[in-house]
Write a structure and sequence with these properties.
The structure holds 2 protein chains of 2 kinds. Chain A is mainly α. Chain A is 41% helix and 4% strand. Chain A has a two-stranded antiparallel ribbon. A two-stranded antiparallel sheet of chain A has the order 4-5. The longest helix of chain A is centred in the N-terminal third of the chain and has 28 residues, at 47-74. Chain B is mostly helical. Chain B has 5 helices and 1 strand; from the N terminus they run ααααβα. The model of chain B has no long low-confidence stretch (mean pLDDT 80). Classes of the chains: A mainly alpha, B mainly alpha. Chains A and B meet through α2, β1, α3, α4 and α5 of A and α1, α2, α3, β1 and α5 of B. β1 of chain A pairs parallel with β1 (101-102) of chain B. Chain A: It is found in: Nucleus. Chain A: This is Bromodomain associated domain-containing protein. Chain A: Residues 22-98 form the Bromodomain associated domain.
């Protein structure tokens, strides 16, 4: 039994021509089609004839898909189900014709002769497993974790749903949903920054003011409501040094220049606030 | 009355058909189609087919397999008919029987029944080596 040499060799991917992915899937389909022909009794095939038949097979697959999708969409659904596929198969088989196609009364899709033919085919035809194990998916998808094609005979529906960690229907370029903990952490960090320069500040003083000044930082942070920030524990007295022009935000940097005691600074500030 | 009984009958019949169909889909998981699941999923996804149910992908794969098998059967019949038409010595015929090759002619005749027109250039007249190897057809 001799087959055309290409079937037993590894797929040859040419440099120039269609996309490597297109070529790849076409080559795999060609192997499958060649196996089917061999099981029918062919001993060999012309390369052009085999490629033409492979092309027909890919178009048939895509035609089934398109018709099933159209049928589902016209029913207001995005996902196809069994009746959609039967409608697609009937459409494609209507060219050759099948018993029941000409019936005027609406017939049930489940009793369609197309499905019955398929059942007989599955019953009477031996299995022809694919010749070679398929390579992992990493060849054409960068960054994705690949896995070998494993045959799962248990009808695991989730295989078409999950793909490793991510769900198949979620595009890969979408960022993951941010964890809520990170937000709180950020806020806490912010609070720490705010309070890091205000050691020993008492609570009542804090409640009086809306503005917080920090020696180390040049920014002024504003607290909208005092409820957000709460200090735990009592803090000691705070010493901060203020310059002359205290209400001018650009002169905050001069806070270090003059040395004023806290009481004096507080009263000064209170005056200016009022 | 008649309508009611027929309606009931059709209901029972539908139930049987449903059961047969679910049984068939379950049996599909035991049957491995020649076309791998991943390949089928690739082509289905390319055309916008969305279905998390793997049994339906198997169904599509089996349907395609059946289609290709039918085309191959028709081409085989064409090939055999051609061989029986050309009867020379007994030795020649036996040799040809051993080498059933899928040719473009047989395939185009078989595919015509299915509505696919595959026309093949008879020869190329561009360069001197044209026509020596008909398999090297450029698309």
């Amino acid at each position: 039994m001799r087959k055309s040499l290409r079937h037993n060799d590894k797929p040859i991917i040419e440099e120039a021509g269609p996309l490597p992915e297109l070529e790849f899937s076409f080559t795999i389909t060609r192997v499958a089609v060649a196996q089917i022909c061999q099981s029918m009794g062919f001993k060999g095939a012309q390369i052009s004839a085999l490629e033409a038949l492979t092309d027909v097979a890919t178009r048939y697959l895509q035609a089934i898909a398109k018709l099933a999708v159209a049928s589902a969409n016209s029913g207001g659904r995005t996902q196809s189900n069994l009746p959609d596929i039967i409608v697609a198969l009937e459409d494609l088989a209507s060219l050759q014709g099948f018993p029941g196609n000409s019936s005027i009364r609406s017939r049930s899709l489940y009793t369609s002769a197309v499905i019955k033919d398929l059942m007989k085919f599955v019953e009477y035809t031996d299995e022809i497993p694919f010749a070679r194990p398929l390579p992992p998916r990493t060849i054409f998808r960068q960054g994705a974790k690949g896995k070998y094609l494993k045959y799962r005979g248990d009808g695991d529906n989730s295989r078409g749903y999950r793909d490793g960690d991510s769900l198949r229907h979620v595009p890969r370029w979408l960022p993951a949903v941010p964890v809520v903990e990170g937000k709180e952490k950020g806020e806490e960090g912010k609070r720490e920054v705010k309070w890091g320069c205000l050691d020993g500040r008492t609570r009542e003083e804090k409640e009086d003011e809306n503005w917080r000044f920090c020696d180390e930082r040049k920014r002024v942070e504003r607290v909208v409501s005092n409820k957000e920030i709460e200090i735990s524990g009592k803090r000691g007295k705070v010493r901060f040094k203020m310059g002359v022009a205290i209400h001018n935000p650009t002169m905050v940097g001069n806070l270090r220049v003059q040395g004023l005691e806290k009481e004096f600074g507080a009263t000064d500030y209170d005056e200016k606030e009022a | 009355m008649n309508g009611q009984t027929s309606h009931q009958q059709s209901k029972d019949g539908r139930h049987d058909d449903d059961a047969a169909l679910t049984e068939f889909l379950a049996s599909l998981m035991d049957y491995t189609p020649t076309i791998p699941d991943e390949l089928v999923e690739h082509y289905l996804a390319k055309s916008g087919f969305q279905c998390p149910d793997i049994r339906l992908t198997r169904l599509v794969a089996v349907a395609t397999q059946k289609f290709i098998a039918d085309v191959a059967t028709d081409a085989l019949q064409q090939c055999k008919a051609r061989q029986s038409a050309v009867v020379k010595d007994k030795r020649d015929k036996q040799q040809k029987d051993k080498r059933l090759i899928l040719t473009m002619d047989d395939l185009s005749k078989a595919l015509r029944e299915y509505g696919v027109n595959v026309k093949h250039q008879e020869y190329f007249a561009d360069c001197p080596s044209a026509g020596l190897d008909s398999a090297s057809r450029e698309e």
